[in-house]
Every structure is written in C-alpha cells, then in structure tokens.
Amino acid sequence: MSVAGYIAAFISIMIGLALADLATSLQRLLRAGKRVKWDLLTPAAAILVTAFIINVWWSMFGALNAMRSISVAGFIPDLISLLLLFCLASSALPDEVGERMDLGDYYAENRKRFWSLFALYTIWVTLVVGVRAALAGVPLGQFAGNVGPNLLLASLMLVLVATARKWVHLLIMSVLLLTTALAWLPQELGGAS
Fold first, then answer.
1. Considering the entire predicted model, what is its pTM?
2. Distance (Å, whole) CA 106 – CA 25
C-alpha cells in the first residue's frame, strides 16, 4: 500500500465516522416522527457540515496523490483537522430524542459551540495549508488569495456565535451554503489512465 493510500484509508474512516454520526442522528429524528418540532436552522447546519465533509473527502485525492512520505509530526495537523470536523458533525444534530425535541431550541442552545467549532476548524485548516504552502516555497501572493475568503467565512461564523437573530443565521447560512456549493460542486477527480 502506498503512503497516500495508507493515509487516505485513515482519513476516509474519520470522514465516514462523521457522516455516520450525522446519519444516525437524522435517522433518530425521523423515527421520532411527531415528537420532533422541526426548525429550518438545525437541518441547514447539518447540510452545511455534510457539504464540508464531502469537500474534505473529495479534495483529499489531489493532496494525497503526490504524497511520497509523511512523518507523524506532519500528520498531526491533519488529525486535529479531522477531529475538529468530527466534533462539528457530532454537534450539528442532537444525539438523543426524548419525549419531545424542539430543533429550534436545540439550535439556540447549541449555536455558540457549533459555530465556534466551525470557525476554529476553518481557521485551523487555513493555517495548516498556509504553513505547508510556505514550507513548500509557494509565493505568498499565490496563497494569499485563499486566506482572505477563508477568514471572511470564519468571521461570518463568529457573527453567528455572537447573535441569536434568526434572520441573520438564515442569511449567513445561505451565503455559506452557496459558497460551499460553488467551491466543491465543480470539482472533478482525474488521473492518468
């Protein structure tokens, strides 16, 4: 097995666990039926996290394709990213449904933790990619075009930590969903035949 294949297997397991957690929580909500009072923000947050997870999995092909070796120290930043992504996925939907579950209340109680994790994840990944680019000798100007948008996204996430206004959450989540979709929907896998 190649180094890239070995690392890809680990990353795929972590991503699979994050998606499985989301799917399990969704299944519990659907099975609870009328005991759940639905609200738009909670499922929208879960969809956004799912899009980020798919983006990570899909884009790992390009990053791993050229990998010939990696040290444990070189992999730790990726492990931290994956753990943050798993925690983010785990907090998007409730784990348990009691006698009654109001998803609006769940979102309101969970929003600070959820959006703080999301902002931390976004900043962390931007930092890791930036350090790796600098170590690889990529000119700062070439990488700087990625830093601004990522920091803007993280700033929008931090606005959602600070405010409880539903219309602000709907607006910013719409922007985040649109931005994420535009970034990952056109991506293609390719390679030599």
1. 0.89
2. 13
Range of lowest pLDDT (72-76, 94-98, 132-136, 163-167): 132-136
Q: What is the pLDDT of residue 135?
A: 83
Degrees to nearest 5, angle at CA 101 with 45 and 176? 10
Q: Is the pLDDT of residue 127 over 80?
A: yes
Structural contact between residues 157 and 122, judged by C-beta atoms closer than 8 angstroms: yes
For residues 47 and 177, is the Cβ–Cβ distance under 8 A? yes
List, for residues 130-147, the tens digit of each pLDDT value: 888 888 787 777 777 778
Q: How far apart are CA 3 and CA 68, in angstroms?
A: 6
Contacts of 91 (CB under 8 A, 6+ apart): 110, 113, 114, 117
**Paired tokens of 47:** 């969809």
Q: Which residue shows structure tokens 């979102």?
A: 107
Which 8-state DSSP code applies to residue 102? E
Under 8 Å CB-to-CB from 43, ≥6 apart: which residues?
A: 103
- Counting Cβ atoms within 10 Å, is residue 2 exposed (0-12), middle (13-18) or buried (19+)? exposed
Phi first, then psi: give them for residue 37, nearest 5 degrees: -100, 115
Q: Which of 183, 13, 40 shows the shortest CA–CA distance to 107?
A: 40
